[in-house]
Amino acid sequence: MNEQHDGESWRETYFTPEQWARVPSTATPWHSTPADPGVDDRLRTAQEIALVLHAIMVSVLTRRQRQVMELYYLESHTQVEVATALGISQATVSQHLTGKRRGNKRVGGAFRKIRKAIRKAARLHTTNGSRYGELITALDALLEASITRRRARAVIEIGRAHV
């Protein structure tokens, strides 16, 4: 059957099952072979870590801290925009994220709460050999590295997509 399509002619062809069997799998548009066979394992691990992180965030952060983190990291708003959206000051947004100083000590803040919960869980689960123990230990190791806004957003987005 010949038809016209945008000035080009094309022909619809029907293959028999035997003809389809002779077409190599690499010839199909949806076939893809990952260059690195470990990609799926690393992606799955990243998703599992994000789920654990999300569970920790839900369990230790206040509703307002979660709102601030979502607006700031996931939606990429500035602290001033977050403050306006939530009807609070920019200083309060900063305190929700990083805490504040009392005397010579830093207290409060979403990041401090999350880090404290991860470290506590890592101490409790390092010897049990479970998958959760492995993931929480990996999260604890990640805490040693500095975290950028982009990196935090990526981790949170993975968690949100799979919750």
Give the tags:
single chain, 8 helices, 163 residues, mainly alpha, elongated, two-stranded antiparallel ribbon, disordered N terminus
Compile the SSE list and pairings:
Blueprint: E1 2-5, E2 8-11, H1 17-22, H2 39-60, H3 63-74, H4 79-86, H5 90-98, E3 100-102, E4 105-107, H6 110-125, H7 131-143, H8 149-161
Antiparallel strand pairs: 1-2, 3-4
Helix pairs in contact: 2-6, 2-7, 2-8, 4-5, 6-7
Compose a concise summary of this entry.
This protein has helices at residues 17-22, 39-60, 63-74, 79-86, 90-98, 110-125, 131-143, 149-161; strands at 2-5, 8-11, 100-102, 105-107. The chain has 163 residues and is mainly α.
How many individual helices? 8
Q: How large, in whole angstroms, is the Cα Rg?
A: 24 Å
Task: Describe the oligomeric state of these chains in a short phrase.
Answer: single chain
- Across the major sheet, the strand order is 1-2
Helical content stands at 55-70%
Indicate the proportion of strand residues. 5-15%
**Count of domains:** 1
Could you say which structural class the secondary elements and strand pairing correspond to? mainly alpha
Number of strands: 4
- Cα end-to-end separation: 48 Å
Q: How can the largest sheet be summarized?
A: 2 strands, antiparallel
Mean pLDDT: 76
Q: Stretches where pLDDT falls below 50 for ≥5 residues?
A: 1-5
